[in-house]
Amino acid sequence: MNVEQFIIIAFTALLSFLSGRAQNIASRHDEESAKKQEQFQHIIEQQREFSLWQANITKQIKELDRKLGLISICTDRLRDGGLILLRDRIIQSCRIFIERGAIPITARNNIRDMYKCYHDEFNGNGDGEYYFKEMMELPVDQDVPIVSHFDVGGSHDRKN
Q: Picking from 65-69, 96-100, 155-159, which range would have the lowest pLDDT averaged per residue?
């Protein structure tokens, strides 16, 4: 074997070795690329799931906002109804005792408590305030009975 043949064999062996190394590197690169592609697909799937979750949460928030609006409307209506009922009850009670010219202490305290709620909690004023002030000027008379306009006896029939 001459030198030229030896160089060719050595060169061929070197090329074969380098080719094997290149294929090994390419194979590892392909595996890493596949792994990265799999990770990327997993991230894309997670983003899709997150977007669905986010859309669902947004939908639920909108529904809760709608329900909260309805609750707010109902609360306002109940507040207004309570204000109207308190005003009516205060005026009605005060007028009865103003006409009598005196008021029992228990009735006065009850009306005062209703007025406190009417005025302080509901910010009521106007006619209720006028009658309340008139009633507070009345003398307290323990002998004036409180007459109920409702049947408080047991004579009425009640069926459950």
A: 155-159
Helix (H) / strand (E) containing 53:
helix 3-100
Let me know: does 140 contact 105? Beta carbons within 8 Å.
yes
At residue 98, the pLDDT reads 94
Beta-bridge partners for 140: 103
Tokens representing 154 are 């047991």
For the chain, the maximum distance between any two Cα atoms, rounded to a whole number of angstroms, is 144
Which of 134, 125, 135 minimizes the C-alpha distance to 83?
125
135: number of Cβ within 10 Å: 22
Contacts for 127 with CB less than 8 Å, ≥ 6 apart: 87, 91
Q: 144 in helix, strand or coil?
A: coil
**Nearest Cα to Cα of residue 103 among 141, 132, 133, 129:** 141
CA angle 114, 120, 121 (to 5 degrees): 85
Summarised one tens digit per residue, pLDDT across range 39-78 is 999 999 999 999 999 999 999 999 999 999 999 999 999 9
Distance (Å, rounded) from C-alpha 118 to C-alpha 128?
Answer: 8
Count CB neighbours of 102 within 10 A. 15
